[in-house]
Write a structure and sequence with these properties.
By secondary structure, the chain is mainly alpha-helical. Helices cover 82% and strands 0% of the residues. The protein is built from three helices and no strands. α1 runs antiparallel to α2.
């Protein structure tokens, strides 16, 4: 996996998503927080997590799939179809 993506970048993005989720959790118990603010942060966290998925998928394409095509390994193309399906289900 680490050969497909920049781990540090993904860890940074995941840390931000975790921070957003923790903020949502705190906001739920805060009587002064508006529901719209919570929904806005939920949307931001979802978008950020989708971006992480996009980065992983792009890494998979540029490394794993490209190498498989180059080496004539059709089995990896089947895995790629599954990866696309999983990413689409995130949306």
């Amino acid at each position: 996996m680490s050969q497909c993506i920049d781990s540090k970048t993904l860890h940074n993005r995941i840390s931000r998503v975790i921070g957003q989720i923790q903020a949502i959790d705190r906001m739920i118990d805060d009587d002064k927080t508006e529901c719209e603010d919570i929904l806005s942060l939920i949307s931001a966290a979802k978008s950020a997590l989708n971006k992480v998925g996009q980065i992983v998928l792009e890494g998979h394409i540029t490394h794993c799939v490209r190498d498989a095509i180059k080496n004539g390994r059709d089995d990896e193309l089947e895995n790629f179809a599954k990866a696309i399906e999983r990413f689409a289900n995130m949306q």
